[in-house]
Amino acid sequence: MRSEEEVFEQILDFAKEDDRIRAVMLNGSRLNPNAPDDIMQDYDIVYFIKDLDPSYKNNQDWINTFGDLVMMQQNDFENGYIFLMQFKDNVRIDLSFSDVSTIKEAAKEDSLTKILLDKDEVFEKGELDKPNESIHCVSKPTEQEFNEVLNEFWWIQVNIAKGIWRDELSYAKYMYDVILIGCIRKIISWKIGSENDWNVNTGKLGKWFKNYMSNSLYKKYLEIYPGNDYYEMWASLLLAGKFVRTLAIELAEDLGFTYPEEDDENTTTYVKKVRDLPKDSRVFRW
């Protein structure tokens, strides 16, 4: 596996030898001292080029300069395109090509940004020498945002209950694993944020939750992830309600918001009734 120094040397040598590339920017986890420093760290690189030259897409032989590929994905975005490249020696480079006219705006979009090469001296010396996590920190929710997430959490429980009862596994799993868990991640992030003065980064999709949760709380969090067994899904659904109830009530108190107790009580009762409802039922009683 290439060393970090070797990879950066390749990245910069390629840019220095190509007059179309006017600047090189690094962003992401390699500038974050709180991110895991391991062999799985990506290199998030941006080449800023003249007139958004499309030749790097049209002829991709240049990729061989950086090693032997396992897999590559190329995507377009406004004012640029990106190559996500996984190499056989486990080096991964996410290499974007962006129009040089967007360089100032791009530098403002991510606080974890550093200029590695600036041929035209667009930036003053030392202007971006202090990358930080600020833009990635958990934002304090408004009361409306808090209410919307809690409303979605309890509403989706109704859909999941119906999906399980009807033996519609793919539907119930999507509602649970994607939407319900998404709501839970937001609530956990907010709780961690409130406990750290809103100056904390929990990582993409909560990947660093473990660093900020007690062992017992993190264990409870893991317990809400069900498999494909319906009995397990019913149990996890009720555990999820209990888990969110505890966190959200504390969070509401911290923020001066009102916890939706009626939604909680009614939905929990409904879920239990659907769980106990015989499969051949034609009548539902509250």
TrEMBL record:
One of its GO terms (molecular function) is nucleotidyltransferase activity. Pfam families: Adenyl_transf (PF04439). InterPro entries: Aminoglycoside_adenylylTfrase, NT_sf. It comes from the Bacteria. Coiled coil: none annotated. This is Aminoglycoside 6-adenylyltransferase protein. It comes from Haloplasma contractile SSD-17B. The lineage of its organism: Bacteria, Bacillati, Mycoplasmatota, Mollicutes, Haloplasmatales.
